[in-house]
Amino acid sequence: MYDTLIPENAVDQKEIKINAEDVQVYYGDTHAIKDVSVKIEDKTVTAFIGPSGCGKSTFLRCLNRMNDTIDICRVEGKILLDGEDIYDKKVDPVQLRAKVGMVFQKPNPFPKSIYDNIAYGPRIHGLAKNKADLDVIVEKSLRRGAIWDEVKDRLDQPGTGLSGGQQQRLCIARAVATEPEVLLMDEPCSALDPIATAQVEELIDELRQDYSVVIVTHSMQQAARVSQKTAFFHLGNLVEFGETSQIFTNPVDPRTESYITGRIG
Amino acid sequence: MTDASMPETSPSSKHTSSLLQQDVRTKKRNASEARFKAYGAIAIGIAILALVALMTSILANGSSAFRQTFISLDVYLDPAKLDKDGTRDPEAIAKVSTFGYAPLIKAAFDKEFEKPEIGLEGMKSSEAAKMISKEGPAELRRYVLENPDMIGETVRFDFLAGGRIDGYFKGRVTMESAERDKNVSPEQLQLADQLKAAGLLKTKFNWGFLTRADASENRPEAAGLGVAILGSFYMMIVVLVLALPIGVAASIYLEEFAPKNWFTDIIEVNISNLAAVPSIVFGILGLAIFINFAHLPQSAPIVGGLVLTLMTLPTIIIATRASLKAVPPSIRDAALGIGASKMQSVFHHVLPLAAPGILTGTIIGLAQALGETAPLLLIGMVAFVRDFPSAPPEGFFDPAAALPVQVYNWTQRSDPAFVERASGAIIVLLVFLLIMNAIAIILRRRFERRW
């Protein structure tokens, strides 16, 4: 109903990684995402913020077609990854998800050893030719996940035995191990304490060097801390999208201003 | 009863009362909690009583089936009777029927009667020979056919005592009842006492109960569970081999891959319905399809196994689906999120986590199938089978009995000695069920302990 109010986003675009055009998502009869168009840049952290139920997680899950697993979910519009429509009939979502990794809200390590948690992705994608290769990938991924020093002596122990923050970093390392190009994070810190959150945020900032990171967060401070671009969702609409600094200091839309000043949401 | 129906009290009165004194409301709540606990304890008590009563009655009746009375005799394998020509030709020996061996036992008693402490006034050895089971001469013949070299020797044999003699030492037969019984006389019982005093009559553990085949109505002492145990074992193999893969595959497909629409809904409802179908209906189905249509042999473990498979499938499918459902979706998401295919996520992550539940469901289904009687009656497993089925795979097509059907069979027979046999068979069946449940628990623990 606010469609007419959406302003044109005047943001200069460099190296567009994901280009979403007029995306509509329906859950059965519910129109969950309305006309969302967004351009996500490479080597940038893009934050999706907005009140609960505004569709930011739904939209995030469209980017690697995780919504395919929900029977009643229907996606319309175009989402281009490097110029290719990921909702094209020829696209296999499994191949897509190897390129677009995902980290979930709750840490969900496999009930296997730390080593196997990391090695699983490279194994099923055939990234390692032998055990030595795999060892290298595991170490590299765990270092990228900023957890190597904590777990290097107990790689054979269960990943579920780690603390919450360690588990989440393990999950990030696991996502990184398959060498994705885009990393989607769905409220990665909502189940973590402040110290673990700080570690994960630091990690996200480092990951920006190599990946395009899209993060959904409930915490506006977090969005301000880690992201360069911010998109504000409200009731299924993309209300405003722009440089993080601009969104937080000088929002164009009155709804964005209300949200970041705490009057709605 | 509920708190909501309590009349409203003004808030001020609530706060002024002392904590050391229970108010009306608290008293009421505590009383209802105490009542509920009491109901629960009573329910548990009744269940335990019923269990104890059941176990005592079965053990009291059935434990004697595991002990059996034997009479030891020195039998002279008389060449004049067994091998008249003296050629030791197996064919010639085989010509002597079971009746030809009865005199040997009689002769053995004659010899015993020469001893001063054994024998009664006016008792003939033919009368005494009737104390031996009718199975006795047959066993003697089998021994001679296997060892023809022993002809002419004297061999010490442990003969099964007749059912009445056995019953006398188990308290089932008394002197008074023997007077009215045409199968046994008080004199025979007295002689049995003498034999016992002389150490010739002993009561031993009855391995034959587990290893022998069924025996006819008038020789309960020789009846055993061997064929039934083997038949049940074969059926369980058939059920396991068929029901586990079919059931698990069906559940995985329904739970993880099948679209959720009206058709799968109908299938789901019907699986639950199948689990509630009376088992005898499966027997009729088996009779119609496997025997009348597919012409598989009657009384064969393969048919029993197929029928029990049909019966067990719903149990396994329901248990498997429940344990698949119990695997947290976050595990599936995690696998899918790093680019595993649906099948990889199911087989690498979901299935191993669901395995303990699947195993438990399968073993409980098997245990249920092991104890099932009704469908087996309809496909001919109730027949009297004396011969052991051969080794698999041919053995699956040979006639066999099944444990629960054997229990049913024995309870139909008139000789009181079959009462203990039937109860004994129930004990064996229960032991098998306990073993299976124990295996289920052990496997569950083992798999769950992995992490």
Automatic annotation (TrEMBL), chain A:
According to Swiss-Prot or TrEMBL, what is its membrane topology? Peripheral membrane protein
Q: State the compartments where it is located.
A: Cell inner membrane
Primary site of residence: membrane
Q: Which PROSITE patterns match?
A: ABC_TRANSPORTER_1 (PS00211), ABC_TRANSPORTER_2 (PS50893)
The answer to whether keyword Translocase applies is yes
Molecular-function GO terms, alphabetical: ATP binding; ATP hydrolysis activity; phosphate transmembrane transporter activity
GO CC, one annotated term? plasma membrane
- Gene3D superfamilies, A to Z: P-loop containing nucleotide triphosphate hydrolases
Q: Which residues form the ABC transporter domain?
A: 18-260
Arranged from A to Z, the UniProt key words for this protein are:
ATP-binding, Cell membrane, Membrane, Nucleotide-binding, Phosphate transport, Translocase, Transport
Lineage top rank: taxon: Bacteria
Q: Which residues form a coiled coil?
A: none
A Pfam family for this UniProt protein?
Answer: ABC_tran
Any GO BP annotation: phosphate ion transmembrane transport
The job of this chain, per UniProt, is described as: Part of the ABC transporter complex PstSACB involved in phosphate import. Responsible for energy coupling to the transport system.
Q: Which PANTHER family match?
A: ABC TRANSPORTER I FAMILY MEMBER 17 (PTHR43423)
| Name used for this protein in its record | Phosphate ABC transporter ATP-binding protein
Q: Write down the species.
A: Thalassovita mangrovi
Automatic annotation (TrEMBL), chain B:
Keywords, sorted A to Z: Cell membrane, Membrane, Transmembrane, Transmembrane helix, Transport
Family membership, please give it. Answer: Belongs to the binding-protein-dependent transport system permease family. CysTW subfamily.
Where is it mainly found? membrane
Tell me the InterPro entries matching this sequence: DUF3333, MetI-like, MetI-like_sf, Phosphate_PstA
Q: Which biological process terms from the Gene Ontology are attached to this UniProt entry? A: phosphate ion transmembrane transport
**Gene3D superfamilies the record matches:** MetI-like (1.10.3720.10)
Specify the species: Thalassovita mangrovi
Which Pfam families does this UniProt record tie to the protein? Answer: BPD_transp_1, DUF3333
Where do the coiled-coil regions begin and end? none
Spans through the membrane: 38-60, 233-254, 274-296, 302-324, 345-367, 422-443
Listed GO CC annotations: plasma membrane
Q: Where in the cell is it found?
A: Cell inner membrane; Cell membrane
Judging by the UniProt lineage, the source's domain of life is: Bacteria
- Residues forming the ABC transmembrane type-1 domain are 229-440
According to UniProt, the name of this protein is Phosphate transport system permease protein PstA
Q: Which GO terms describe its molecular function?
A: phosphate transmembrane transporter activity
Q: Which CDD domains match?
A: TM_PBP2
Q: Where is this region: Disordered?
A: 1-24
| Membrane topology qualifier | Multi-pass membrane protein
Q: Where is the composition biased (Polar residues)?
A: 7-23
Q: Does the keyword Transmembrane helix apply?
A: yes
